[in-house]
Structures are given as structure tokens and as C-alpha cells.
Amino acid sequence: MKKLAIFFPGIGYHADKPLLYYSRKLAGEAGYEQIALKYDYQAGNIRGNKEKMEAAFHALYAQAEEQLAEVDFTPYAEVLFVSKSVGTIIASAYAQKLEEAGMAADIRHILYTPLEATYTFAPKHAVAFIGTADPWSDVPAVIQMSEAQGVPMHVYENANHSLETSDTMQNLKILQDVMEKTKAII
């Protein structure tokens, strides 16, 4: 049974940062073939600016689409999208496109620190993780949207957009908890 995991990073949070690095290791241990996307966007400070966020999404989505253009999803019994921040929007939008085209069914999602726009694309078979001190999100709104769409949300007190706090040992505990939950999903 062939399995594929695709990793959608955030802006500045590439696939070698802790959440994506360790989830890639777990996926590999579980026998998933992997594609770690790389994209770039240099628009300066986009946080809180709806127009800049939308422009970033379109530019990054186009880069992701280009990197995935040759992927044939049909031989895979399981497809998993693991995404971080703006990558959660890109992954959800791309999954919706594939599902509507009948090119891949039942794509599962692991959403690390999803943004509000992620839920515009109604990710199915998803689980999400967020920190209460995430400056990129209206955390209560994201939690509410997640619940409304039936997406289980794991919430970490005082954790920021990288699911980290000012306490390194606490960060390691959070990372271990997130990876234990991730492994269970994988």
C-alpha cells in the first residue's frame, strides 16, 4: 500500500524547523513517501494586512501547484498533507481542488497553527494545533471555526505561532505532545 505525505511550510517556517522536521521523521517511519515543498515570498511584514496576506497566498499557492504538477495521486492509498501557518491555507485549497477534480479522495490534514482563511477551504479529515498566544491568528475565532467544521483542535497555553513559549523545557514538552498526537494521526 503506497502512502504519500506532502509538507506545506509557512513563510519562514521551512520543513527543517521542529514541527515539520519531526513530523517528516514520523511519516518516514510509517512508510510514507514524502514531498517537502519549498516556496519563497519576500513582501515584508504581511501580518494583519488582508491584501498582503491574500497576495502571499496566491503567490505561494502557484509555487506549490507548480511543484506538485507532475504528482500522480492515483497509486496512493493514503495521502496526508502536513502544513504550517499559511501552508495550512495552501494545503486546504489544493486538497479541495484535487477532490473536486476527482484526482484524490480522502486527503487527511495535520494543520499546525492554521490561519482563519484555512477554514474557507473546509479541510476534511483534519486535526489542528494552535497556541493561545499566536499573534498571527484570532485564536478564539480559529478555534470556533475549527469546531464548527468538526476539526479537532489541540490548544497550547501561552504558546506562540511556532507553538513555543519563553520556557525552553516547556517547549520540548509541547513539541513531544504535538508529535505524540501527530504520530497517532499518521
Keywords summarizing the entry:
single chain; 186 residues; alpha/beta; six-stranded parallel beta sheet; globular; Alpha/beta hydrolase
Helix/strand layout:
Blueprint: E1 2-8, H1 18-29, E2 33-36, H2 50-68, E3 76-84, H3 86-100, E4 108-112, E5 126-131, H4 139-148, E6 153-156, H5 168-185
Parallel strand pairs: 1-2, 1-3, 3-4, 4-5, 5-6
Provide an overview of this structure.
This protein is an alpha/beta fold and 186 residues long. It is built from five helices and six strands. Helices cover 40% and strands 19% of the residues. The mean pLDDT is 94.
Helix content: 25-40%
As residue ranges, the low-confidence spans are: none
> Which structural class should the secondary elements be placed in?
alpha/beta
* Shape category: globular
Number of helices: 5
Q: Mind describing the biggest β-sheet?
A: 6 strands, parallel
Round the mean pLDDT to the nearest integer and report it. Answer: 94
Tell me the strand percentage band.
15-25%
Order of strands in the sheet with most strands: 2-1-3-4-5-6
Kindly state the number of beta strands: 6
Helix and strand element order: EHEHEHEEHEH
Q: What is the terminal separation in angstroms?
A: 14 Å
Radius of gyration: 15 Å
Protein name: Alpha/beta hydrolase
Keywords: Hydrolase
InterPro entries: AB_hydrolase_fold (IPR029058)
GO molecular function: hydrolase activity
